[in-house]
Amino acid sequence: MLDPHSFLKQQGNSTVVPMRWEKDKFFLLDQRLLPWEEKWLEIATVQECSAAIKDLVVRGAPAIGITAAFGMVISTKSALEQGDNLDDSLQNAAELLVSSRPTAVNLKWAVDKMLQVYEAAKHQEGQRVYEIMKNEALEIWHQDIEANLAMGRYGAELLPDSGTILTHCNAGALATGGYGTALGVIRAALSAGKNIDVLADETRPWFQGARLTAYELQKDNIPVKVGIDSAAGFFMQQGKIKAVVVGADRIAANGDVANKIGTYSVAQIAKANNVPFYVAAPLSTLDLHTPSGDAIKIEERDPSEVAVIAGKTMIPEGVTALNPVFDITPAKLITAIITEKGVLRPPYGSAIASCFH
């Protein structure tokens, strides 16, 4: 199997990747420090892996899933070295990882897949079990990049030949194994010769658009500007936005989409201004067990993430803040869902179900 970094550079002409696996060690690019500092953290235990997911060292549903897969590899290696019971160690690791963040379905998907591989291999010699687990995590990573490249090809055809594309949060290389979902569509459109540029919503409270989307697009020499979240309607009203492309953390069986807080507002504004609104996400984000967005648990984080900017509290003492991390965009607001198997259009219930038959 070609190293994921080499494969990405060869097939996608992109070098932005949020993770590394070198000499049986796993590293994550600390996204909390971007764009000011590029710092790689070695993740040596499953506890560190869980903390990295919870504390937003790594974020984005596909990237979280890949990280969790390597968390299971790390747990396997640790149990073998310490002589611990592998069954118990991996079950405990799985529970810890799945509890790290509740909304992104890729996390549980990846952990369940690693458990299935372990169950099939558990009767083999310990080192062989480790190699099988490691190769499966690398395969999950590799498949994610392939899926992103395929989504890019399908999605590029939907974008206009020229104009500005708005995106919210970061659904790019940093949120995946590389290349990206929403930003992968944009990368592919540019590779196909389309004359487009990007407006990135800043995406409060963590500024994933301003910090991360702008960072990685600049790295790949893609023209990008940053706009405040509340200006999206103004730009659409002015006719300056030709399409919106976002990612997803979970897509319910009826097509409702959970994504970064603010996505629903953007979708409503796009609908009001007749701007196409596209969601790009791999099949691992489609959740047939969740009938609609009403059943998706919305993670709420520490109010200080909203109230404090650069170490300075921005609201009066005694006033708290609300910090839901995601919202639900109803299927009726979505023009199309772009997957690695093709473009899904309404009615989404049957379109999504057909992906798994």
Short description:
The chain has 357 residues and is α/β, with parallel strands linked by helices. It has helices at 4-12, 46-54, 61-82, 86-98, 105-121, 126-156, 182-191, 208-219, 232-237, 263-272, 304-307, 348-354; strands spanning 19-22, 25-29, 40-43, 162-167, 195-201, 224-227, 241-246, 250-252, 257-260, 277-280, 286-287, 308-309, 312-313, 326-329, 336-339, 342-344. A hairpin with a 2-residue loop joins strand 1 (19-22) and strand 2.
Structure explained in plain terms:
The chain contains 12 helices and 16 strands. With 357 residues, the protein is α/β, with parallel strands linked by helices. The chain folds into 2 domains: 4-149, translation initiation factor eif-2b, domain 1 (Four Helix Bundle (Hemerythrin (Met), subunit A), Up-down Bundle), CATH 1.20.120; 155-354, Translation initiation factor eif-2b, domain 2 (Rossmann fold, 3-Layer(aba) Sandwich).
**Helix count, per DSSP?**
12
Total domain count: 2
CATH level-3 fold name of the largest domain? Rossmann fold
Oligomer: single chain
| CATH C-level name of the largest domain | Alpha Beta
- Second-tier CATH architecture of the largest domain: 3-Layer(aba) Sandwich
Into which percent range does the helicity of residues fall? Answer: 40-55%
Unreliable stretches (pLDDT < 50, length at least 5) are none
Query: Topology as H/E string?
Result: HEEEHHHHHEHEHEHEEEHEEHEEEEEH
Please outline the major beta sheet: 7 strands, mixed
What's the Cα radius of gyration?
A: 20 Å
**Any idea what the shape is?**
globular
Structural class: alpha/beta
Q: Please name the fourth-level CATH homologous superfamily of the largest domain.
A: Translation initiation factor eif-2b, domain 2
Number of E-type strands: 16
Q: Classify the beta-strand content into a percent band.
A: 15-25%
The N- to C-terminal Cα distance equals 28 Å
Strand order of the largest sheet: 6-5-4-7-10-15-16
